[in-house]
Design a protein that fits this description.
Blueprint: E1 2-4, E2 10-12, H1 15-26, H2 34-41, E3 49-50, H3 51-64, H4 73-90, H5 99-108, H6 115-119, H7 122-131, H8 142-151, H9 166-177, H10 181-192, E4 196-197, H11 200-205, E5 216-220, H12 225-239, E6 244-248, E7 258-259, E8 264-265, H13 269-282, E9 293-298, H14 304-308, E10 325-330, H15 332-339, E11 343-347, H16 362-373, E12 381-385, H17 386-400, E13 403-407, H18 408-413, E14 448-450, E15 452-456, H19 463-483, H20 489-498, E16 502-506, H21 508-514, H22 524-550, H23 567-570, H24 587-597, H25 611-616, E17 630-635, E18 638-643, H26 647-650, H27 664-676, E19 685-686, H28 699-711, E20 716-717, E21 720-721, E22 729-730
Parallel strand pairs: 1-3, 5-6, 6-9, 9-10, 10-13, 15-16, 17-22, 19-21
Antiparallel strand pairs: 1-2, 4-15, 5-14, 7-8, 11-12, 13-20, 17-18
């Protein structure tokens, strides 16, 4: 019987070659058996079978054997998959090609950015190539490596041909972003050992010719046609370059409003939302998927009741815009009236002039809101019970999972900006000041840009690790700002004037399990407080260091940092009820440095979803509790099995989301984290039908969670998760666009 090799040649089938491959795949890995893999493969051999097909069967066999009783097969399957990848890219499975030859080939073929070879001479490339540790490929689990291959390694999306292996990719990213050999090596070491979690746009894009690495953009829309359609143009440009979209329609007038003195009647916000829906879904994100957007709207907008139900299956096509997500903006006035069981009044922004501009300032907002409530001249005014609106919100949030919330007053009062902010992004972790654009080339407008990363807590062994990772994460994103291109001038204006970064954390569940703590444990909040204090202190310190070298950002004066304030000053003091404000870092010394030198960046931290990249690093997702110890994730090439980190040693210390009877533990942790984070968080909540009588989740539970989160300073809520669907199997990514799911 003949086997067809990758080069097209045929050779006689050899069972010894299969033994050799499988034994290599299992060597040094405990709790696995090469014979079990061979038997499980159940090879159906035929004359002319390809060696590639045999290899794929062996990989699948090892993957099928992954279980809670035999977790280490995930490393066997990864090793076999890695051999397959190396043969495709290198032409062999054991020895990599020359790094210089590899780079030259990919630059000559237009795959890589030519800057890689323009920045570095042959000797430097050889030095960096020698620093690469291909053995670090063994850190990947099967699900992680498969995810990397499917989504992040540079490939021809038409043919499927892959141009690189993981360690080459990590080194090329570092070479594009840094200018000294020492910095490149340090960056590579952080990336390849999973200390720093790189977001989708950076991981997939840096080293290619597409120089746009923003995860999300925030587009604020003014109430006129030029602004609306210029914003639509900007959305299309950024979606095509891998970014998720935040849209703010809080300024737009409602249906039947007069235009040009009544000559024209306004169609309302919904027809325009359909345009934005089409824009984000018709524009491909690097050939992987259509984009996604979250629409932000204030609770007092005249069309709020109609907008909140757009995602639901009820109704007709005319009153559905299902492929957008929605974030409802609340403030103290709403919660006060909800608790008092009073009415709220809905307005049109074009009539209630200036109301949206002061929405984030409770005192000014309430004064103007009451003025308009008492005015008889407004035609677009409607009273409804605050509880009715809260119940619509809760019902839609429970049924769709994709109605979010933003506490706009909290976002303004307890963050780094001292200028008004009006919106958040797709995934609810970014808070930026924005200025609507009048045209696609508007020099005065500002589109908020999110440049993201995260620190993998489980890979931080000591304080020095945290310090180094914070410094490298800040310098990585600082380099991105000047390295990337800007398809819209308003995005460039924002980024280069404000230089805002969003560095978060991931693998919190794994970190707590390592410390033998569950989400509900009393000592958990103390550990989280200590850890986040150290991280934010080091992020600020790293930015201050860059300000000493390069100067502060142009609009540093529009931050609370410029007033000498720090996160320990501006957080919502109710958090002190959860954990004592005891500090270990030298905040006064840091304050002195910031006053003297300023900061290079307006913001430094945000907690974003890490759904996709957490799989790559075999980490738990962001700050989320795990849903199962063994998770089955739907992916492009089938089901990926992922076990929690260090399953054998720590399985009893993991908190399972669906076993938690309420969300208080999650919200308490999030509130303590938010104390130090200068932007916001993608905070997800979990609702299990089995914890409630007759399997019905009362809407009051969701409403109480909203009030509780507001009390303790949470700025945003993201998904409301329920155990619907197909049991243990989860979608590959919560964040549909993949833009924010770093």
């Amino acid at each position: 019987m003949k086997v067809k090799k990758r080069n097209g040649e045929e050779e006689v089938f050899s069972v010894e070659k299969i033994h050799k491959v499988v034994m290599w795949g299992t060597e040094g890995i405990n709790g696995v058996s090469f014979s079990d893999i061979e038997m499980n493969a159940n090879l159906s051999l035929y004359d002319g079978i390809s060696s590639e097909e045999i290899h794929q069967i062996l990989i699948k066999s090892a993957n099928d054997l992954i279980s809670t009783s035999s977790p280490n097969y995930q490393y066997v399957a990864a090793r076999l998959l890695n051999m397959h990848l190396r043969k495709d890219v290198w032409g062999c499975g054991e020895h990599p090609t020359s790094f210089l030859v590899f780079l030259q080939r990919n630059v000559d073929n237009g795959i890589y950015d030519p800057c890689i070879l323009e920045k570095w001479d042959d000797q430097q490339v050889e030095d960096l190539g020698n620093h690469i540790s291909h053995d670090r490929d063994d850190l990947f689990t099967y699900s992680g490596l498969q995810q990397l291959i499917d989504k992040y390694l540079v490939k021809n999306r038409s043919t499927g041909f892959i141009y690189e292996t993981p360690q080459f990719a990590y080194m090329c990213i570092a070479m594009c972003l840094f200018s000294t050999i020492e910095e490149v090596k340090s960056a590579y070491d952080c990336y390849s050992t999973f200390k720093i979690n790189l977001p989708t746009p950076i991981m997939a894009g840096v080293r290619t010719n597409i120089r746009q690495f923003a995860s999300c953009v925030l587009v604020d829309i003014d109430d006129n046609l030029d602004a609306i359609f210029s914003s639509l143009h900007a959305v299309g440009k950024y979606t095509a370059r891998r970014a998720g979209i935040g849209l703010n329609i809080g300024r737009m007038r409602p249906i039947n409003s007069p235009i040009r003195g009544g000559e024209v009647i306004h169609t309302g916000v919904i027809p325009y939302l359909k345009n934005f829906e089409s824009a984000v879904k018709s524009t491909s994100q690097n050939g992987l998927r259509g984009g996604s957007a979250t629409v932000h709207i204030p609770f007092w907008h005249f069309e709020i009741e109609d907008v909140m139900v757009l995602k639901n299956n009820a109704g007709t096509d005319d009153n559905r815009v299902r492929k957008l997500d929605y974030s409802i903006q609340f403030s103290k006035l709403f919660y006060d009236r909800l608790i008092a069981n009073e009415d709220i009044t809905l307005f049109s922004p074009h009539e209630a002039q200036g109301l949206y501009e002061v929405f984030g300032d409770n005192e000014k907002f309430e004064e103007l809101y009451l003025k308009y409530e008492n005015s008889r001249s407004l035609k677009f005014r409607k009273k409804i019970p605050a509880r009715k609106l809260a119940e619509i919100f809760a019902r839609e949030r429970l049924e769709t999972g994709r109605i979010y919330s933003m506490n706009l007053d909290t976002a303004n009062e307890h963050g780094s900006w001292n200028v008004p902010v009006y919106m958040s992004n797709l995934c609810q972790e970014i808070i930026h000041p924005t200025i609507p654009i009048k045209s696609i080339d508007d020099e005065d407008g500002e589109i908020g840009i999110c440049i993201l990363s995260a620190l993998n807590l489980l890979e931080m062994s000591n304080d020095k690790d945290i310090e180094n990772a914070c410094r490298m994460a800040v310098r990585t994103l600082e380099s991105i700002i000047d390295y990337q291109d800007y398809p819209v001038l308003a995005g460039e204006n924002f980024t280069k004037r404000r230089r805002s970064l969003g560095i978060g954390i991931t693998n919190l569940a794994g970190f707590l399990a390592k410390n033998k703590l569950k989400y509900q444990d009393p000592d958990t909040l103390k550990l989280v407080h200590e850890t986040m204090e150290r991280i934010q202190w080091n992020l600020i310190s790293a930015s201050c260091e860059l300000a000493e070298e390069l100067g502060p950002c142009e609009k540093f004066n529009e931050t609370k940092y410029s007033d000498g304030l720090l996160p320990i000053d501006w957080y919502k003091k109710s958090v002190d009820e959860l954990v004592k404000p005891k500090y270990n870092m030298d905040w006064e010394g840091l304050r002195k440095r910031v006053k003297e030198h300023g900061l290079r960046h307006s913001t430094l931290s945000a907690i974003m979803p890490c759904e996709s990249s957490s799989v790559i690093q075999n980490s738990t997702n962001g700050i989320e509790p795990v849903r199962n110890l063994l998770t089955h994730k739907k992916a492009k090439n089938g089901i990926l099995k992922q076990l929690v980190p260090n399953y054998h040693m720590r399985k009893n210390y993991y908190s399972l989301a669906w076993e938690m009877t309420d969300n208080k533990a999650i919200m308490n942790i999030a509130s303590v984290i938010q104390k130090f984070v200068d932007m916001s968080m993608s905070t997800n909540l979990y609702y299990n039908y089995s914890h409630y009588e007759d399997g019905n989740i009362p809407l009051s539970v969701l409403i109480k969670d909203q009030i509780y989160g507001y009390k303790y300073g949470l700025k945003n809520f993201y998904y409301a998760n329920t155990p619907d669907g197909d049991g243990e199997t989860e979608k590959d990514m919560n964040c549909e666009s993949g833009a924010c799911a770093i």
